[in-house]
Amino acid sequence: MQNECWKVEVLSDGIYLLDGGSMFGVVPRVLWEKKHPPDEKNRIILALNCLLLRSKERIVLVDNGMGDGWSEKDLAIYGLQRPNGGLVDDLARHGLKPEQITDVILTHLHIDHAGGTITHQGGEPRLTFPNATHWLQDSNLRWAEQPTERDRASYLRPRWELLLAEDGRLKLVDAAQEIMPGIRTIPVSGHTPGQQLVVANGEKGQVLFAGDLIPYASQLRIPWIMAYDLNPLLTLSEKKDILARAAAEDWILVFEHDAEIPAARIESSDRGYAVRERVEF
């Protein structure tokens, strides 16, 4: 494929709150709270960052946040906040309507990554991006259809099942693949089977949307791994591989859940990996 160069922008669907201990696993609170001060319920802020990629022919969105239609109970649990509006509002600020999105790449079907796949009008769900091809790893769909008791709450079928009913709106990817010129996927399965990271050829260099492999810049530290990960030792191995390549090839990392450092170049030293410089798009 011809190597397209994409215009890169980071969009927001707001922020929400999750238990800090769950986000950092075996890492003691005394360490992670320095970067992520918790509230009185031990919850910390997670951004809902999404990636917008534009070329002459296509407008691509990577992940779509949590979407709408949540109950008052859900809103209280997750502390969902959108002082500047949600993802659709941010698209409008960038001069775009949902109907203009040609492709949506979903890292995986967890509610905070694919919850915006649908929107509600008159109580009836419909696809938020009705003209878009939605890209997903086949193995993640198969897992999402039969999750375990441990992760069932993260895979809410009503949030994405319209993709199965709409002819041609879902395109399944098998393993690593260049899905369009200048955009490729890297499957990683430590967090959940069939998560896919996205690498795009941007105007400032290669951009990696790190998904839930590296949600925060603070999690550049190799052992800082979420308790949500189904296979943490696999996550450990995957992080080592990805970060070694990202540092060697000077990739820009986009951190999906970091409200303070959405994007950065990284560096490697004998102390591990760290942010070298923040990147603005």
The termini sit apart by: 26 Å
**Unreliable stretches:** none
Name of the level-1 CATH class: Alpha Beta
Report the CATH architecture: 4-Layer Sandwich
Q: Look at the structure and name the CATH superfamily.
A: Ribonuclease Z/Hydroxyacylglutathione hydrolase-like
Main sheet: strands, sense, barrel: 7 strands, mixed
The helix content, as a percent range, equals: 10-25%
Notable traits:
281 residues; alpha/beta; Metallo-beta-lactamase, Chain A; 6-stranded mixed sheet; 8 helices; globular
Can you tell me about this structure?
With 281 residues, the chain is an alpha/beta fold. It has one domain (7-278): Metallo-beta-lactamase, Chain A. 20% of the residues lie in helices and 32% in strands. It has eight helices and 15 strands. The protein has helices spanning 20-24, 29-32, 72-78, 87-93, 111-114, 138-145, 162-165, 232-248, and strands at 7-19, 43-54, 59-62, 103-105, 118-121, 124-127, 133-137, 170-173, 177-180, 183-188, 195-202, 205-209, 252-254, 263-269, 272-278. Strands 9-10-11-12-13-14-15 form a seven-stranded mixed β-sheet. The longest helix is centred in the C-terminal third of the chain and has 17 residues, at 232-248. It is globular, with a radius of gyration of 18 Å. The mean pLDDT is 96.
